Amino acid sequence: MTPQVALERGLDELALELPSGASEKLMAYLGLLAKWNQTYNLTAIRNPLQAVSHHLLDSLSVLHDLSECRGTLVDVGSGGGLPGIPIAIAEPARRVTLNDTSEKKGAFLRQAVIELGLSNATVHVGRAEDWRPAEGFAVVISRAFASLVDFLAHCRHLAAPSGVLVAMKGAYPRDELAQVPADCDCHEVRRLKVPLLEAERHLVLCRVGS
């Protein structure tokens, strides 16, 4: 199976209808990621088929759950642009900000935004905990934070008053949920089914008190 066929099959399984040209942009993004990976350590995954499942489909699997969370989105600890770039490609009407602390990764993200023509995406390089954007985001998402508690501590101020913090996790994070502060409501945990990926995936949706 070619990566393109794998992507199309995965999109069918996820029941996603992407805008015209989005599939081609997603594959072009993987090409950029592979090219820059030769110089910068953006991802440990080098197999193109694995990249489709672990990067593209894994990122796109959250779209149905985010459909009720309209508005701006920030991907914290974006690294090589995951899940932010696939989301920006799939939802051109949503404004997406890609955030990472690394200048090198920031350089890649900026180049990817330019080359892929993502007019809805911007890049902010810096530590999330030190960043004070002019307006809060409707969605603050990350798959980079090892700990749910750290994610909430470092990123809760980025969310708008009615916003949601979304943590992408593997196995059900029972121990992490037990450590969530009392003023954070993280009871909503949804299981994701990622096509072509034989691994557990969960999405934790958190809302925080003022």
CATH superfamily: Vaccinia Virus protein VP39
Judged by helices, strands and strand pairing, the structural class is alpha/beta
Number of E-state strands: 7
Distance between the terminal alpha carbons, to the nearest Å? 49 Å
Overall pLDDT level: 94
Summarize the structure in words.
By secondary structure, the protein is an alpha/beta fold. The protein has a single domain, classed as Rossmann fold (3-Layer(aba) Sandwich), CATH 3.40.50. The chain contains 8 helices and 7 strands, in the order ααααβαβαββαβαββ. Strands 3-2-1-4-5-7-6 form a 7-stranded mixed beta sheet, with helices on both faces. The longest helix is centred in the first third of the chain and has 16 residues, at 22-37. The protein is globular and about 45 Å long. The termini are far apart. The mean pLDDT is 94.
Question: What's a concise summary of this model?
Answer:
The chain is α/β, with parallel strands linked by helices.
Furnish the topology, listing elements before pairings.
Layout: H1 3-14, H2 22-37, H3 48-60, H4 63-66, E1 73-76, H5 84-90, E2 96-100, H6 103-115, E3 121-125, E4 137-142, H7 148-155, E5 159-169, H8 174-178, E6 184-192, E7 201-208
Parallel strand pairs: 1-2, 1-4, 2-3, 4-5
Antiparallel strand pairs: 5-7, 6-7
